[in-house]
Design brief:
single chain; alpha+beta; 5-stranded antiparallel beta sheet; 4-stranded antiparallel beta sheet; 12 strands; 35% strand
Length: 186
Amino acid sequence: MNAALRSPVLRSPWLKWGLVALIQLALVALPLAERLRVHASGTEVTLALTPIDPRDLLRGDYVILNPQINVVEAGSLADSVYQGDPVWAVLEADNEGIHRAVELLDKAPEDGRLVIRGHVRGHRSEQRLAVDYGLDAFFVPEGQGLDIERLPRDRIRLVVAVSKGGASAPLRLMADGKVLLRDSAF
């Protein structure tokens, strides 16, 4: 038998449990590293929110959001994408500084346009798709959700960071140009 395999160090339960712990830490750290990268290097965009039934607004310690870009004109993709497929929405700012989805693509563009990556949730109509960007909830300190719930949806904006590849992470929840809440990378 190989002498290295008989070594007491390699048979040590501490080493085995240490390796298991390192693997678990890596699994937790990878999504956080991506989120930190988007926060640090992403382009800030402001998204408008559409009205939500106030009875569903607060669940636990987060506020449910509904960015207007969640429903997008599908254009030529209407018949070629299905639930779960990745899509990229091209974003352009309007005259108020609100970013709107102006085009939907089935792959990331290489021409430098600002895009946000999501997944098709389903078809809303023949020409409109529901898209999930992972921006539907904003965590709030306990007790602050009711104050946000009472604000009119047309006054609230979500500021997100968007990376060149389309990954996104929430940064701030704003009302009337004032910061209500900041989201940390953790």
